[in-house]
Amino acid sequence: MTDATILIVDDEVGFVETMAKRLEKRNMAVLQAFNGDQAMQRLADNPGVQVVILDMKMPGKDGLVVLQEIKDAYPLVEVIMLTGHATVPSAVEGMQFGAFDYLMKPCSFEDLNKKILEAVALKQEHDGEAVEARVSEIAQRMG
Amino acid sequence: MHPEKTTSYDRLTRNIVLTVITVSLAPLILVGGVIFDQFRSIYSEKVYSHLSEVVDKHTTHIDAFLGDKLHEIQYLNTAYSYEQLISGDFLTKTLRGMQLQYGRIFVDLGVIDEDGRQVAYAGPYDLLGADYSEADWYRESRGRDASVSDVFEGLRQSPHFIITINNVTGGKPWTLRATVDFLSFSHMVENIRIGETGFAYILNDGGVFQTKPHEDLGSKLVLTPGETILFAEAQKGVTIRHSHGSDNETYVTVSSPLNGGKWKLVYQQNVTDAFSDMARTEYVVLVIFALGGMGIVAMAVFVARKLVSRCRAMDRESEFMNRQMVETGKLAAIGELAAGIAHEINNPVAIMIEEAGWVSDLMKDEAPPMPSRGEVDRALNQVVTQGRRCKDITHKLLSFARQTDPRVTQVSLPELVREVVELSMQRARYGHVDFSLDMDPTLPTVAASMSELQQVFLNLVNNSIQAMEADGGTLTITCGREGNEAVVVVADTGPGIPAANLGRIFDPFFTTKPVGKGSGLGLSICFGIIHQMGGDIEVESTVGEGTRFTVRLPFPPPVDQQARQQEMHHD
């Protein structure tokens, strides 16, 4: 059993791969995507993804757009935005669209790790609420 | 200025001057010429008309005088018979009577018989029995009823003329003659005097003077008749002509026949004299014209110079402005480039840090004990540390490259000032400038655009450092609170600003730096930024002691401030 299932989305292959290796070493399942469409594909294939680490600036689909798509399709998946300094305003905008938090590149690995665990906790909480809701719904129906 | 540009300005000046002169002088000359010409012809006509009138009047007058005298003698001739006239002292009595009646115009009376001998005489001379048969006037008068002789000296050796009436009694012709006093006659003509050279005289048909011409003027002058002047109002019989005198002057002569055509009344005057009034008017007009023309020319030159120099200044300013625009554009481009580069560098640096982290992860878990383990860890730490440093640098670069970011945020002034000082530290070290900071840490934040405020303080600090670069000094920055305002004072110990420049240092493009070194925009931009924020910037300076810039910024209203702080926290 892993601590978390994570999807990293960034056009920098080296960054994604290294990050994945390091996170996997910390007992996390890590999926990789190098653009927005791939990210959506991975999410569709792996319903267990809890947290997405999403770069703001990518060729093709912009991070903000991808964020909205994720939130539309999988509202319970938490998203941590990764941003260069120049894109902080759009990251803040992303928070308004429901991103969990943002981190500035290059980020410290410890910070990222911590944020991921927080996000997973939040996600589990939400999932629990969702399960409870369903349970009470079912109970009501039965009752 | 380029030489060709200077000549183009000169050409512009010349063109303006020529155009103004032409446009203003041409109509003046045209109108002046027409009026001048008209005035001349009208005035000449007037002068000629006046002269001919004078001459005509006098001719009539003299003719009337001669006619009167003739009539008086004729009256004697018809009223008395030959016998009566020659008897005793009848003539003497008559002469006395006539002299009482008419004044001493008649000098003497005489009766001449058919042989030309004077048979009766009354008068001052002893001429009884004088023989006139050979005298010109006597011979000329023969065969005519009445005649007036030319002036001659005759037996009495003084000029006079004689009126003769011929009569026949009992088949024997006889003649009554009277001598007219020349002086009283001559006066009538000599009284005609106009101007300085105008005078009149009478000539007979042989061109002999009948009156004494003016001593100074007429006597030796020989006139060559020139063109005859014709004009509309000329009196009948009056001729006007211009003649060249032997003294090389032009004379106008006006003549009119007299005494039944035997004589001629001639009036002569120097043309210059006759037209002296006109000449004077013309002279005044010409002087006015010349002065006016000179005024126009001077004005045209003055205005053109002024215009062109204004033009030149404007050109220079716009040229400068253009250059400034290019500079500003360049600066903006460099800023953008820096931002882009900083952003791009972040990615590789991030990968480097992650890779180093990955290696140290692997080392921690898998590496067998090895002697250089400590050294490897140290190297990996170094990679991470230096990567972080790169990140700091790129982030700083980004925040300064985005100078046009006008977004208003809550800015902590002490923090901002410290950042600015840090950036200028290197330069300050080269210039032997020491910083002395006095910050109030409890100072609330102000609502402002971070990058704009950075620009303002960077500018002030840079200016101060530049001012002190030569000899070094101390740059004191204090940050404090005064009532509802944050006050930042940037004071240097530089050479100070002369009072003459102090009032202008916030003017755009005002700079004391050498050409190409300063744009003169820095302080004016600071001024604009601070005023836009509702603040104020002041300068005090003492030459030799230093300069103090005081920036005042208002704190935002408390409620607003809290709201904003929350927002910031949320960020």
UniProtKB/TrEMBL annotation, chain A:
What superkingdom heads the lineage?
Bacteria
One Pfam match:
Response_reg
Annotated Response regulatory domain residues: 5-120
Q: Which InterPro entries does the annotation name? A: CheY-like_superfamily, Sig_transdc_resp-reg_receiver, WalR-like
Q: Which UniProt keywords apply?
A: DNA-binding, Phosphoprotein, Two-component regulatory system
Post-translational modification 4-aspartylphosphate, affected residues: D55
Name of this chain's protein? Response regulator
From TrEMBL, chain B:
Q: Where is the Histidine kinase domain?
A: 340-557
Question: According to its UniProt record, where is this protein located?
Answer: Cell membrane
- Alphabetized UniProt keyword annotations: ATP-binding, Cell membrane, Kinase, Membrane, Nucleotide-binding, Phosphoprotein, Transferase, Transmembrane, Transmembrane helix, Two-component regulatory system
Q: Which GO terms describe its molecular function?
A: kinase activity
Any stretches that span the bilayer, and where are they?
Answer: 12-36, 283-304
Recorded E.C. number(s)?
A: 2.7.13.3
Classification via CDD domains: HisKA
Any Pfam family the entry gives: HisKA
Q: SMART domains, per this entry? A: HATPase_c, HisKA
Q: How does it sit in the membrane?
A: Multi-pass membrane protein
Q: Kindly provide the name given to this protein in its UniProt entry.
A: histidine kinase
Q: Which organism is it from?
A: Pseudodesulfovibrio portus
Lineage at the top is:
Bacteria, Pseudomonadati, Thermodesulfobacteriota, Desulfovibrionia, Desulfovibrionales
